[in-house]
Design a protein that fits this description.
Strand order of the largest sheet: 1-2
Shape: flat
Number of strands: 2
Radius of gyration: 19 Å
């Protein structure tokens, strides 16, 4: 594995033999870190938003699971 840092990015080069599923999970986590790095929201606010989204999803999809 080779890690290079430039002024604007970090480049990671890995062998093609690396498990793609595990590597994708790492990429997803790095993307999460990048997206949330400038956030001023608290964990409590994020939890409330997640609860609201789940509640709305359930209202819209309940009939697909319960008959």
């Amino acid at each position: 594995m080779i890690v290079e840092r430039t002024k604007s990015q970090i480049v990671i080069k890995v062998s093609p033999q690396v498990d793609t599923f595990g590597f994708q999970r790492i990429i997803d986590y790095l993307e999460y870190l990048e997206l949330t790095s400038k956030s001023n929201s608290s964990q409590d606010e994020a939890d409330k938003l997640a609860d609201e989204l789940n509640e709305n999803w359930w209202k819209n999809n309940r009939n697909k699971f319960i008959k």
